[in-house]
Amino acid sequence: MNRLLILICALMVSLPVWGETVLVFTKNSLNPEIPGVVELQAALEDGVMETLFDAGHIVFNAGVVVSNEKLDIPSERLSMRLAKSGGAYFLLEIDFSLNAPVSEEEALTPREASYRLYSVLDGGLLTQGDLVPEDVNDRPDTPVNDICIVMGESIASGTLGKLRL
Description:
Elements: H1 2-14, E1 21-28, H2 37-54, E2 58-61, H3 78-85, E3 90-99, E4 109-119, E5 125-131, H4 133-136, H5 144-159
Parallel strand pairs: 1-2, 1-3
Antiparallel strand pairs: 3-4, 4-5
Helix pairs in contact: 2-5
């Protein structure tokens, strides 16, 4: 019994640990009080977080943020300060643009998501990109929530290769 316990402990210690900590910081283009805005932002973040978590990363988000001023130095932005105080190794900033409905009958739809992945340790930009709904969906009957989830998954997939210390 002691040998088995020692063997199990040795195997557990020898397993590689790949789980870097990532803060997902999403800012949307519309007022969060508009119905549906927070839900679509949450769907985008769900896609990002689930994909990164499934890949073995520790992921957390900053909640609904109204602004994140684009300062010249990334280390001075709110997003970077939150990542540092939260102990994250990486910061994934997402600017999520939405098309505001013109009438009450019209649905809120995603327009674009721009993302940047930073190393929190040195503030260096590791990768960036832009994504529009047409990049991930070619069916007009797909629910908007599902499109946002797939956009998030695609953003996360684009960053996975850079998430190594």
